[in-house]
Amino acid sequence: MTTAPPEDQRRLLEVQALDTRLQQLAHKRTTLPSIARIAELDAQISDLSTSLVASRTAVSDLKRELTKAEGDVEQVRTRAARDQTRLDSGQVGAKDAQALVGELASLARRQEVLEEVELGVMERLEAHEDALAKLDAANDELLAAKAAVVAERDAELAQLDAEVATVTAARAKAVEGLDAGLVTLYDRLRAQLGGLGAAVLSGRRCGGCRLELNPSDVEIIKAKSPDQVARCEECSRILVRLDA
Questions:
Q1: Count of alpha carbons within 13 Å of 103, Cβ hemisphere only?
Q2: What are the two backbone dihedrals, phi and then psi, of residue 6, each rounded to the nearest 5 degrees?
Q3: Is residue 209 part of a domain?
Q4: Contact yes or no for 32/150 (Cβ under 8 A)
Q5: Is the dihedral of CA 180, 240, 242, 244 positive or negative?
Q6: Domain check: are 144 and 205 in the same one?
Q7: Residues 107 and 201 in one domain
Q8: 22 with 57, same domain?
Q9: Letter string b/e over residues 188-225, b meaning 16 or more CB atoms within 10 A of that residue's CB
Q10: Contact 240, 201 (CB under 8 A)
Q11: 137 and 43, same structural domain?
Q12: For residue 198, what are the CA distances in angstroms to 17, 24, 108, 218?
């Protein structure tokens, strides 16, 4: 049977209150709204990242396609300019001149087709670059929003950590000098029973499980000497008798 001075048993309630506060702070640390908001923003950034990769790839591909289209047009222009120079030189025969005229006409048609292709690529590239610019802007907004929420979270965590340090110090002071056996029992029960190892006996009601004890159990508890540690018959928690 565990015994401890009545005053130590009453002081145990202060330790319990501090432990409960530490438990609340630990829970709050993991359930800050800013943490959920950061997760939400991360999901949005991740989704947008997929679109950004696809858009950047499309722009890169179209730039290569445009470079090729421009090269094809330039190649035709160069050949046409060369043929025109030969034709204008007057140093070719009639048959060769006729062939050059025909080739120039063919090159002109080819150039027209290639320039249309080039224009089409330019238009598609412009559209994709506009889309990419909007995606980049949206991404920048999300990153800025996340940075702001991260700063908010860090400030909240720092505040919580400071309170944890204060409460932890108060807890160490509160448990100082208490009966070792009582503290050992309390810590064991607290670990087993969701953080609540000691509670007040108020009338017939246990402050831990909130159940009313049988009158006979209450009489047994009241009959115990003040230094005997009472336990709840329902939840096994330490019952502190304030009138003991």
A1: 18
A2: -55, -40
A3: yes
A4: no
A5: negative
A6: no
A7: no
A8: no
A9: ebbeebebbbbbebeeebbbbbeeebeeebbeebeeee
A10: yes
A11: yes
A12: 9, 17, 96, 16
Q: What whole-number distance in Å separates Cα of residue 203 and Cα of residue 63?
A: 83
Buried b (16+ CB within 10 A) or exposed e, 106-119: ebeebbeebbebbe
**Total of domains in the chain:** 2
**Do 106 and 16 lie in a common domain?**
no
- What gap in Å lies between CA 220 and CA 53, rounded to an integer? 74
**pLDDT values of the chain reduced to their tens digit, one per residue, 244 residues:** 689 999 999 999 999 999 999 999 999 999 999 999 999 999 999 999 999 999 999 999 999 999 999 999 999 999 999 989 988 888 888 898 999 899 999 999 999 999 999 999 999 999 999 999 999 999 999 999 999 999 999 999 999 999 999 999 999 999 999 999 999 999 999 999 999 999 999 999 999 999 999 999 999 999 999 999 999 999 999 999 998 6
pLDDT score for 244: 65
- What range does the domain containing 200 cover? 6-26+179-240
* CA 72 vs CA 80, 124, 169, 226: distances in Å: 12, 18, 78, 102
Residues 6+ apart with CB under 8 A from 93: none
Q: How far apart are the first and last CA of the chain?
A: 17
Question: Distance between CA atoms of 75 and 102, rounded to whole angstroms?
Answer: 18
* CA 39 to chain CA mean position, Å: 3
Q: Which residues contact 9 (CB under 8 A, 6 or more apart)?
A: 182, 229, 238, 240, 241, 244
Can you point out the beta strands (E) in the chain?
Answer: 198-202, 205-206, 230-231, 238-240
CATH code, 40: 1.10.287.1490
Considering all CA atoms of the chain, what is the largest pairwise distance in Å, rounded to the nearest integer? 134
